[in-house]
Amino acid sequence: MTKKENFLKGIFKENPIFVALLGLCPTLAVTTSLENAIGMTIAVIFVLVLSNFIISLIMHNDKLANLVKPVRIPVYIVVIATLVTVVEMLMHAYLIELYNSLGIFIPLIVVNCIILGRAEAFASENKPIDSVIDGLGMAFGFGLAIMLVSIFREFLGAGVLTIWKSLQVDLTFIFDFLRIEPIDMFIKPAGAFISLGFILAIIIAITNRFKARMAEKEKEVKSNG
Question: How many contiguous H segments (helices) and E segments (strands) does the chain have?
């Protein structure tokens, strides 16, 4: 696997949200606004990339690896929890509004299956540079997914997109043109499930159509050959 393929697999082929269906709790909870999704993405990038890097360094040191292997999962959790604590403290100090908005879902990054899963499945068995690239790809895939869900929810539920604080994109003119009102249900808990379901259905439909076309092309090539 090339470095490019290693990075892109987290965005497309092995997207943690749309393919593996991991990390759905923050996906459903914090996507009420694009600002929240951006903030969560930054936090996950920081934690996932650094945890992959640190764990890969530990597991590629023979002496440390021999000590850690019997208790590797608790060690991974300690590394991840330390990084999450750093993120939480930085947000509390410099981004208090975002910190209050994300709430409990910042410390819950510790138990996010994506981060612990990449530590066990990839970082523990690969070199530090490859682990960093894997972490970046998975974090970007996660971030793009929750931003897409948040755009869908906030647009349909409020008619705006909140990028950062007072920086908003007002799209209410679309609703005015259609003579309808935004559906506030989409920024409520039920709207999270409905939005994710719609997006997954669209992605699966596109994927199936693409696979069908590829299968048809293969048949044509074989028949012509």
Answer: 10, 2
